[in-house]
Amino acid sequence: MTGARTPLVAVENLTVDFHSGAGSFRAVEGVSFHVDPGETLVILGESGSGKSVSSSAIMGLIDMPPGEIVTGRILYEGRDITHLTEAERAAFNGSKIAMIFQDPLSHLNPVFTIGWQLAEVYTAHGKCDRAEARRRSVEVLRRVGIPDPETRIDWYPHQFSGGQRQRIMIGMAIALDPKVLIADEPTTALDVSVQGQVLELMRKLQREDGLAIIMITHDLEVAASMADRIVVMNQGNIVERGEARQVFARPRHAYTRRLMSALPDHDAKAERPESTAEPILEVRRLTKYYGLPAGAEPRPAMKPAVGDVSFTLRKGQTIGIVGESGSGKSTIARMLLRLTPTTSGEVLFHGEDVLAMDRRRLLAYRRRAQMVFQDPYSSMNPRMSVFRIISEPWIIHPDILPKAKWRDRVAELLGLVGLRPEHADRHPHQFSGGQRQRIAIARALACDPELIVCDEAVSALDVSIQMQVIELLADLRERLGLSYIFITHDLPIVRDFADRVLVMKSGRLVEEQETEALFRRPREDYTRMLVNAAPKPKWEVEPGAARPAERAATERVGG
Amino acid sequence: MLSYVARRGLQSLIALMGLLVLVFFLARLTGDPAYLYLPLDSTEAQRAAFNQLHGFDDPLIVQFLRYLGDILRLDFGMSLSRNLPAMQVALEAFPRTLQLAVVAMTLALSLSIVVGVLAAARPGGAFDRLGTTASLAGASAPDFWVAIVAILVFSVNLGLLPTSGTGSPLHWIMPIAVLTLRPFGLLTQVVRGTMLGVLTSPYVKTARAKGIARRKILFVHALRNAMLPVVTVAGDLAAGLVNGAVVVESIFGWPGIGKLMIDAIIRRDFALIQATVLVTAVAIFVLNIVIDLIYAALDPRISHQAG
């Protein structure tokens, strides 16, 4: 606490339990923090750390039951708001404290226009009548940078881009000039180029209105770019707190140090020599139009999902394909494994045309080329044991391994991906996200592949887990001589891992370079933007001055 | 949108043609009408004359082509049993069924929405348990049994309501109550189920963070999203009612299209069977198009422009 002054919002010794049939779970324990006007407090933590629970408690969003506030209280300007009546809560939320969330698409009501949803904030709090509310809504939309707000106020959420939806959410939050804005992972679902714009918008509103921001994030760079003070949470406890700069420069707690080590270091690395190994996959002028019947010629007005992409993957090499959503990167992955038909182009695997293979040859090819998907939760049958999941390829390809050796081989594969043999008898729901992705890798390895296509394989994982999975993949590359095509929206992640990087935008190959060269000397503006997209720490930027790169980005309205 | 209705209309027309073929030939499997309409001791010659008069002696295919030709001139044939144009008889009965259906559906929908939403608002609460029990009972009680018991209790024992027929407002009470019961039960289950899902959705959380009153969150934010599955099931149930609540109309002697259809089948009144089926089929096609339009009105993400 800062002296005798009453903080704007104070959480004191908060402990929250969630009760279920299986027992009680302590989500946060003895958590205390406060925020003052005009400052940003970042609550940093990975999934399951309880970082969202305390902010939900501030807003009265915890359902009780199953939740229970066991101890502690929440003060707003010294007034206890822990237990408000329904009517008091409705009057308080939105007018004193407002909140924005991670995924703006699912947090906007799909069946009402954004104008309706915005105007409702004014009318529900009795500020003005409908006509006046609509006029004010247009002004708010203009303020948060929605172009042509007079027209777009009658649009529905699905008609906007992700960044615009988050701007609308922010607009709804600041409509009544609240004193505190709680932002729960506000940029996690957004493309990197849009992320910077949304963060800058929040900083701008903070400067103009003196807003206090409580920001919840798992992203260290986002945290650094926003925070005045930081609270680090792990397993329901605050493990470290302090001035942002201090916490980043000299983390005291072991957990914080481990988190910080996941930050990509920007030290220059040696550029790798060009590989001269034999090519295993040659891709030539690969093109895909969706909705085009086989054999038909695309009309000039049609835009390809993937247009004219060529590259060569050599044995033992890793190619990173990087792009934002809609860039066509996942479509490439699906075409390479013939999971989706190709409009034109060639894919040569050891010189043999994959697109011309008959069923038998294709089955053999798919054994050699495996895929690991983004979501380890939905890409595994929840009713199968890990043993069945990993051994399933041997039913499809009976020549790989005689049945008598399956047990031993599964145990061996589990060891290879850092799990234990006894895990074979468990089911997917008994594992964490990172462990599931290890199982997915073990399943891919069961076929003795030469090539693994990873489609956003670490994107759903916490940062510290991401690094572990990538280290595992790199280790397997050395030991088994694998080649990878690693598809991601997160450029920094491939820096230590990929030999070459392909940058995709709107279905086109923008740039292809050796990885380190691409990071040091990007040739194209778009690549440069991606390389520099990671937000800069707040203390490295002049206080009050907008960052040049992001200012340029905000001016290109439409994010 | 107009082009969508036109396209759906065309599709319906094709389906209608198939239905006409099916009903025409199936009706003729019910037997020879001459045995029903002539005295038991009629001679072979009398029956042949009867069949020749009504054209039943021609080969089936000739009869069918003649039927199609007549339809094009909007002539749907004469009802054997009533000696009136079949379509006129069907169109007289249909509004009476429609009235029952509209009142019963409106009641069932309004009741089930209120009960379902309030039950979902506090799952496991007293109202939820009461509502769930009532709706389960409504959904599972067989309507013919309920109808007969109702007649026994309210007409025979208490003498409060007429047993059957039409005429006074009192005649409406029992048929409507019985027809409402099942849709109410089923729809309450659907409303409650989808509301439970919708209430955990992120946009409901947003509404709470905005400080919207709970009543408005329930009945505006959440309900509008929960309506799509409700409309689907309600459409299905409404089709059943429009089709003629055959059993209920028969028990209560309600002169609607369901009762008419049964009578026509029993009397081998081919023209009337065809006319009643045609009327209900057209009604159901129209109902389906209306439901699709309601979908689009409820959910802006559904567009009938393309595809």
From TrEMBL, chain A:
Keywords: ATP-binding, Nucleotide-binding, Transport. Residues 9-260, 281-531 form the ABC transporter domain. SUPFAM superfamilies: P-loop containing nucleoside triphosphate hydrolases. One of its GO terms (molecular function) is ATP hydrolysis activity. Coiled coil: none annotated. The keyword Secreted does not apply. One of its GO terms (cellular component) is plasma membrane. The keyword Nucleotide-binding applies. It comes from the Bacteria. It is found in: Cell inner membrane. One of its GO terms (biological process) is peptide transport. PANTHER family: D,D-DIPEPTIDE TRANSPORT ATP-BINDING PROTEIN DDPF-RELATED, TRANSPORT ATP-BINDING PROTEIN. Belongs to the ABC transporter superfamily. This is ABC transporter ATP-binding protein.
From TrEMBL, chain B:
Keywords: Cell membrane, Membrane, Transmembrane, Transmembrane helix, Transport. The chain crosses the membrane at residues 12-31, 100-121, 142-161, 272-298. Residues 94-295 form the ABC transmembrane type-1 domain. One of its GO terms (cellular component) is plasma membrane. InterPro entries: MetI-like, MetI-like_sf. Belongs to the binding-protein-dependent transport system permease family. This is ABC transporter permease. It comes from Amaricoccus solimangrovi.
